[in-house]
């Protein structure tokens, strides 16, 4: 029980004290070490470029990326399957889009 109370105390203290030099919350804003507001910008690319069954209106058919890939390879062949996905990836995001 003592260990649990200790862990909760450490967690509570670590959440309330901002480390010098780090971004932290001040009221409803995120601020830098000097207290100046910071705007964070970004996007989550997660499964953005992954085809899913609902996109093709499959009913009781292929659902996962692997199943969809196998389906198109069976009916169109490997080259024709790769072409639209490669084109989409090359046009959607580039390495320079991720430069800091």
Can you describe what's shown?
The chain has 100 residues and is mainly alpha-helical. It has a domain of 41 residues. It is 42% helix and 6% strand. The chain is built from three helices and two strands. A hairpin with a 2-residue loop joins strand 1 and strand 2. It is elongated and about 60 Å long. The protein starts with a helix and ends in an 8-residue tail after the last helix. The relative contact order is 0.07.
Brief digest:
The chain is mainly α and about 100 residues long. It contains three helices and two strands. The chain has a domain of about 40 residues.
Averaging pLDDT over every residue, what do you get?
78
Biggest sheet, spatial arrangement of strands = 1-2
- Note the main sheet: 2 strands, antiparallel
Listing every helix as H and every strand as E from the N terminus to the C terminus, the arrangement reads HEEHH
Calculate Rg over CA atoms: 24 Å
Low-confidence stretches: none
By secondary-structure content and strand pairing, the structural class works out as: mainly alpha
The helix content is 40-55%
Distance between the termini: 46 Å
Proportion in β-strands: 5-15%
By DSSP (H or I, 4+ residues per run), the number of helices equals 3
The count of β-strands is 2
Question: What best-fitting shape do the alpha-carbon axes yield?
Answer: elongated
Describe the protein's topology:
Elements: H1 2-16, E1 24-26, E2 29-31, H2 65-76, H3 78-92
Antiparallel strand pairs: 1-2
